[in-house]
Amino acid sequence: MTSKPLYVYLQRPDTGDWVTVGRYKLDGESEIGRFRYAPSYEAAGHAWTIDPVNLPYLPGRDWEARRYRGLHDVLRDACPDAWGKMLLQRQHNLPADAHDSRYLALAGNVDRWGALAVGPSATPSVAALSSPRLPMLEALSRELIALFERRPALDARLRQRLVATPSLGGARPKTTIQDADRYWLVKPFLPTDAADIPLLEHVAQQWGRACGLNFAETVHHALGDGLSVVRVLRFDRLGKRRFMAVSGASLLQTEYPFIGPEESARWSYPRLAEELKRIGAPLADRVELFDRMVFNAVAGNDDDHPRNHAAMYHAQENRWRLAPAFDVVPNPVEAPRALTMQLSMGRFDISREAALADAIRFGFKTLDEASAHLDALLDRIGAGFTRVEGLLSPELRDLLQPRLQDNLALLR
Ligand SMILES: Nc1ncnc2c1ncn2[C@@H]1O[C@H](COP(=O)(O)OP(=O)(O)OP(=O)(O)O)[C@@H](O)[C@H]1O
Ligand SMILES: [Mg+2]
After folding, report:
1. Which residues partner with 245 through β-bridges?
2. Distance (Å, whole) CA 365 – CA 287
3. Mutate to test the pocket of ligand 1, among 73, 83, 113 (most ligand atoms within 8 A of CB)
4. Is the CB of residue 274 less than 8 Å from the CB of residue 361?
5. Among 37, 101, 146, 314, which has the minimal tally of Cβ within 10 Å of its Cβ?
6. What mean pLDDT is predicted for residues 356-373?
7. What family does the Swiss-Prot or TrEMBL record give for this protein (predicted)?
8. What distance in angstroms lies between residue 247's CA and the mean position of ligand 1's atoms?
């Protein structure tokens, strides 16, 4: 019971042309997937690896996938998560246990993450549909909320557009908007939100930037009737160009969302740092990851799961690098005591000891060096907060201000 092949296309990092990079097949019985780099890809002398950990470029070899019931990690990265899956289920009447490869094929390539696309034919065909433009932000956001609440369409064309572009990951309703040659992820406030999450996300991203960290650019929009929307600059798009990306889950060779207690043993910042080193990212990226870990600890962002980290391919540098930080959202309800990823071996707790125990694995030469780095970083995070706190609502300030003091004390 082998499925029909699904061809995988890649937008070449050098010329921007689409090429067929390989072929995926699922054996439905054993739930083992097989991917093979295409002979034509090899013949043309291409050698870009689409997943530097799990699918090294080795022509002629069948790479088996067992995670995700037989879908290769980087293909899973190109699938929707809860939000997009829900849209596709409604649209195509999919059973609850539909295989991820169905979502991969049905989601369409228009908004897909990274530089991969898929299709049924051996020659690449990737429709170049333009995205809605910035002036549509408010109408699209209202339509997203209506869709989320299962209300009838406010604007049939926008509804159709949203339903036709469900490919991006994550649980929250989202869409992509274009402004000149830049693309932004649009995430509106939801009636079920316990706090103004879009504002909180915007402030957290700005806070990270104010500390000198590589956090994705964001803009916040406060619109009428309490509508709050954050837009986040997509690092995997520029003009017509798409950039290869892999999630932290793929780099860590773990499944996310969670499927069993053994998985979280693999969710670890120091391990992710080692994987970054293994795939050729520079030391600066490992230190940046350490800094993000500490930032998440201070801000109480315990939604720091493996799919909220990523690496991207830099064509000019010809290497994989840590992607900008995204989806950094302090817990809006309570101050967490632990993160979702281990700060050091077996330790999820927010504490100085946990933050420093495995510092060497991030590339620090000595514990003293790491300690001094941590102290300077905590100063920067504290100072960064004072630069952005004016953006917060009084409620959010009451949430974050005491947490900042408490967590700085735990880490000093
Ligand atoms: N700035 C960005 N540039 C490129 N891709 C991004 C960016 N931000 C997010 N993504 C991609 O979109 C996915 C969903 O985005 P995001 O994590 O912000 O959504 P979410 O619904 O809040 O997620 P979660 O389920 O973790 O709460 C991410 O997993 C990542 O693959
Ligand atoms: Mg996310």
Report:
1. 312
2. 12
3. 113
4. yes
5. 314
6. 98
7. Belongs to the HipA Ser/Thr kinase family.
8. 10
pLDDT of residue 282: 98
Q: Rounded to 5 degrees, what angle do the CA atoms 179, 212, 306 make? A: 75
Atom number, ligand 1, closest to the C-alpha of residue 305: 26
Closest atom of ligand 1 to CA, residue 83: 21
Residue 262 contacts by C-beta under 8 Å, 6 or more apart in sequence? none
Give, rounded to a whole angstrom, the gap between the first and last alpha carbons of the chain: 58
Residues within 6 Å of ligand 1 by CB: 81, 113, 168-172, 185, 216, 232-236, 303, 307-308, 326-327
- In the chain, pLDDT over 90 holds for what percent of residues? 93
Nearest CA to ligand 1 atom 13: 169
Residue 72: CB atoms within 10 Å: 27
What is the domain partition of the chain in residue ranges?
6-119, 136-412
Rounded Cα–Cα distance for residues 337 and 268 (Å): 16
Q: Which two tokens stand for residue 91?
A: 């649209």
- Over residues 130-162, the pLDDT tens digits come to 899 999 999 999 999 999 999 999 999 999 999
Q: How far is CA 340 from CA 110, 181, 247, 269, 407, in A?
A: 31, 35, 15, 10, 16
Which DSSP symbol is given to 192?
A: T
Quote the CA–CA distance of 40 and 20 in Å, as a whole number.
Answer: 8
Residue 340, pLDDT > 90, answer yes
Q: In ligand 1, which atom is closest to the CA atom of 81?
A: 25
Q: Which whole-number Å values give the CA distances from 346 to 30, 96, 100, 291, 297, in the listed order? A: 33, 34, 31, 19, 16
Q: Are 72 and 101 in contact (CB under 8 A)?
A: no
Rounded to whole angstroms, the Cα distance separating 100 from 68 reads 7
The conformation of residue 134, written as its DSSP 8-state character, comes to: G
Cβ proximity of 277 and 295 under 8 Å: no
Is residue 221 a contact partner of residue 228, using CB atoms and an 8 Å limit? yes
Q: Residues 276, 282, 283, CA angle at the centre, nearest 5°?
A: 90
CA distance 203 to 187: 14
DSSP characters for 248-294? Answer: HHHHTT--SS--SHHHHTT-BHHHHHHHHHHTT--HHHHHHHHHHHH
The span from the CA of 320 to the CA of 51, in Å, is 10
